[in-house]
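Problem 12. The chain below contains 612 residues. Write out its predicted structure in token notation.
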Amino acid sequence: MAKALRTPVGAFSAALLALVLALAVLAPILWHGNAFEVDTEAIGQGPSAAHWLGTDNLGRDVLFRVLVATRLSVLLAVLATAIGVVTGLVLGTLPSLLPRSAARLVTAAVNIAVAFPGLLLVLFFSVIFGVGTHGAVLAVGFALAPAFARLAQTLSASVAGQDFVSAARISGVGRIRLLVRHILPNIGEPLVVNATIGAGASLLTFSGLSFLGIGVQAPDYDWGRLLGEGLNGIYVNPAAALAPGAAVVLVGLAFNLAGETVAGVIGVRTGSRTSAPRPHIPAREEVAEDRDGALLVVENLQVAFPRPSGWTVPVRGVGFTVRAGEAIGVVGESGSGKSLTGLAVSRLVESPAVVTADRLEFAGKPVLTTPERELRGLLGTSLAMVFQDPMTSFNPTRRIGHQLAEVSEQHQGLPRAKALARAVDRLRAVRIPAAERRARQYPHEFSGGMRQRAMIGMGLMGDPRLIIADEPTTALDVTVQRQLLRLLARTRAERDTAIILISHDIAVVSQTCERMLVMYAGRIVEDLPSAATPRHPYTRALLAASLDLETDRDAPLVVIPGRPPEPDRVPDGCAFADRCPVVTDRCRREDPVLERVDATHRVACWHKGGAA
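Solution.
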């Protein structure tokens, strides 16, 4: 704050706002009598030594009246702004708390209100609430609410898609706590700016109502009433009309500049709809045997997004199992559906997307049909998610220790002090040095590798039976990558925790996991042990394109020709046909089923390991 006040804008706004507040407090005390003193011998006079801004039609000093009116004018503008901001914030955040049908109604009502001009809304509410000070305050406040509600809706939606919100949701944080702790602090800066702009607009609107005679009523007066009175004699004494108008402009400027200054300080700190029935795609896999007793069971998982012309299905019939203590890698090019599969398994894919599955169970619980409140405790303590971007995995406005402690507060009922102590212990467990000091720091004070370790530490706050790591080594140097992979391996060994490692690096997965799921165009094309010989042409191409220390540096790099198909343009036959070196006419006509070639190996290809 001190740094902001040293800037020209900060210093000027602080001085101007301090002057306004001082006048609002002191002017009625010091000059109330002068403002109401009638001088019949000086009616309607212009500026003079006795009356610097002249007098009104009763001989009262215009300057004293403008100064005394500061309190009522500012107070009414602030009250109207507070009503508008609170009402708008409630309307803007309700859709994230209400059921989908009720949320749509609230959003529709806000959209309709925003479509009307603000002045028309003010006059409409003035008719409802009546003439006078109280009615004008309510009219201006409620007229300001729709625009603020729309802003809050937009900002909340942008933050709700961040990884740290998903992490909080999967850890079991309730909707209200999620809103208060994670969403509102991250939209504070634009809300402050628009609230102060709204205060200036409220001041102007309120003065306009008083000028029209439907705001403040006699004997009270604000700048709007003074402007209306001064306008009658503007050709005799222009200062009587110009002075209250200038006061409105200066105070509005003070509000706006102060908001910019406060927003700058905040910024430094922070460093369903369905257009048609969902198409059901038949399962394209041979159902694996002995799925009973598995920790995670997925059968025919599909994720679809609505489009004006129909549905796009980027995950198409995925099926696999994960058992306790098992490490499974999911590999494939970008856009193959790896991350979306992990999010769907964690129940983090939200509207307008639609997730369906013939069977999706975690620890014996059906993920898609179990009520959210019942499932929240299970997922919050038994499933941990490590997201791809370590910077967005944490709320930037809260300290690391408090974010980890929230899991224990929510699910284990620990008081804050004990939860923080456990958070420090979990940071030590993931090899973060000076854990007690680091727990008091913000995410931007951590390196990328430390943030990833802290994310694993958050998962260990409960008793995770499954860790889904989505590209956890992206953008990290090889040393940190190795440390993270060792940490995951140690966690798996010590706690019998299952791990799903999502990565585009097939070499990393083959060295870390005992099984690999190879995905292409939203489907699993091969499910094989890491030590097995791949049978699918795509898997062999991924391995051939990997680099290691033995790669011939003089030879050209191996690449896979072409590009994966777009999710809404998947061909009828095999999706890999256009890039496959062993493609035949059958490949272009028929989509191969994922079927077994031995007890632990499944392949979806018409040429399983051989030439055409």
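Discussion. The first strand starts at residue 296 and ends at 307. Students who got a different answer should revisit the alignment rule from Section 12.3.
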